[in-house]
Automatic annotation (TrEMBL):
Signal peptide span: none
Protein name as it appears in the record: DUF433 domain-containing protein
InterPro entries listed in its UniProt record: DUF433, Homeodomain-like_sf, WH-like_DNA-bd_sf
Length: 70
């Protein structure tokens, strides 16, 4: 994973490509298999998809939760 302010607004991406980790996770959660994704996106490799899955828990870690009252 790479994080670069000049690529996808600093979101974690697949090895400098313009595929945010969240996009890969959305594809998988929509029912696409790893093989489906690889067929549609030639510049991705199986290890890229697996790395996104390994990185996913970091996207859900929350340091603080705030109660917003309107």
């Amino acid at each position: 994973m790479t994080i670069d302010q000049n690529i996808c607004h600093g979101k974690p991406c697949i090895r400098g490509l313009r595929y945010p980790v969240e996009f890969i996770l959305e594809l998988l959660s929509s029912g696409m298999s790893i093989d489906d994704i690889l067929a549609d996106y030639d510049d991705l490799e199986r290890d890229d998809i697996l790395a996104a899955l390994l990185f996913a828990p970091r996207l859900t870690q929350v340091k603080s939760i705030y109660n917003v009252v309107k």
